[in-house]
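lol forgot to send this yesterday, sorry. struct tokens for the thing we talked abt
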């Protein structure tokens, strides 16, 4: 079974071809980061228009690279939500129209399900069940992943996502959007223990997060400094911020492993690229005897491969593909609804 996957929920256009027998055949991606950087964040209307421009060339690219034609495709999986309404509509309308033209069915797919299953694209994938720490620009969640369609939300952020906190703090330190990776580079030059920032909800007793207070603490720190901010201050503040957020993410991920009794942790999403977070989790894993899996970076951030894979696994799990033609997107779509739709008993999640 050959699945064409299409991701367009935010600022990346991703297409991929996934074969149920041979695995991922090809994937191609266009990131709009450079276009949005000028505005300091994602501009939804520009995102939608750019998806329109990119989809066809990217589709041609994956077909050429995998040496397949559109007629070989058995079903088209695309991101139905959550995400930006206009951006989702572009991908969804394209996928549904193409499916009508080819007389093939579609698999409207949940973006976060794609992220949760993305570690299965790795050469050394984890086996079900595992705990997933999903840390991206838009989401911060801890999930128990028991199998395809079996996801239990263990905890999530009550306000800002981890990547959002990185980006907003980076902006306060004068770094361009999206500043997460730049802040992390700056932090490597900073000194430890110069500034003390809060670790929100570290001892809350649950698996939820809150990062807006941390961002406000960075703002307070910045306001107390003379302008222009010195390079030394920026590096020390970046280090303090990164240590605070990594402390919280690592502690809650370990707590989730303890609460579920599982020994495998998957870290997905752009913040999973953070070197200090990885070092901290690797050290904890060695000390406590659990394993950490990091999907390759190209599958950590938004991509079409995870959508093609999720669509394929859904069909293999017995879900039926949808007749193409009618469609809607779901900009807000709690992942928990997937389990409800599948009528899974809570114990199966
Ligand atoms: O998964 P992703 O591409 O996001 C969404 O689609 O939301 O992740 C992007 C987020 C951004 O907030 C970016 O600043 C952050 O991941 N990020 C990092 C690093 N690399 C990317 N945050 C901290 N350290 C990094 N090295
Ligand atoms: Zn994402």
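and heres what i got for the seq, position by position
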């Amino acid at each position: 079974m050959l699945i064409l996957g299409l991701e367009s929920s935010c600022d990346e256009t991703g297409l991929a071809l996934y074969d149920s027998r041979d695995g991922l055949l090809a994937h191609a991606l266009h990131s709009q980061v450079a276009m949005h950087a000028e505005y300091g964040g994602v501009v939804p209307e520009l995102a939608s228009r750019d998806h329109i421009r990119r989809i066809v060339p990217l589709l041609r690219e994956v077909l050429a690279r995998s040496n397949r034609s559109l007629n070989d495709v058995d079903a088209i999986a695309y991101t139905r939500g959550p995400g930006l309404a206009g951006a989702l509509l572009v991908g969804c309308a394209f996928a549904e129209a193409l499916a009508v033209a080819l007389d093939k069915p579609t698999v409207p797919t949940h973006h976060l399900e794609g992220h949760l299953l993305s570690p299965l694209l790795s050469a050394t994938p984890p086996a079900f069940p595992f705990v997933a720490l999903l840390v991206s620009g838009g989401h911060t969640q801890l999930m128990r992943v028991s199998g395809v369609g079996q996801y239990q939300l263990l905890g999530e952020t009550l306000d800002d996502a981890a990547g959002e906190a990185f980006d907003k703090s980076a902006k306060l330190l004068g770094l361009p959007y999206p500043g997460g990776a730049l802040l992390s580079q700056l932090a490597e030059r900073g000194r430890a223990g110069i500034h003390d920032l809060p670790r929100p909800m570290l001892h809350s007793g649950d698996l939820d997060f809150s990062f807006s207070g941390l961002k406000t603490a960075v703002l307070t720190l910045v306001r107390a400094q003379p302008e222009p901010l010195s390079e030394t201050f920026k590096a020390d503040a970046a280090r303090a911020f990164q240590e605070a957020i990594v402390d919280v993410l690592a502690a809650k991920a370990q707590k989730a492993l303890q609460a579920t009794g599982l020994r495998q942790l998957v870290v997905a999403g752009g913040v999973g690229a953070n070197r200090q977070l990885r070092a901290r989790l690797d050290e904890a894993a060695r000390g406590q005897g659990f394993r950490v899996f990091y999907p390759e970076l190209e599958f950590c951030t938004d991509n079409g491969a995870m959508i093609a894979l999720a669509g394929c696994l859904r069909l293999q799990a017995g879900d039926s593909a949808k007749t193409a033609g009618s469609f809607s997107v779901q900009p807000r779509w709690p992942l928990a609804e997937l389990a409800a739709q599948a009528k899974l008993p809570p114990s199966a999640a």
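Residues 343-349 have pLDDT under 50 and may be disordered. anyway ping me if u want another try
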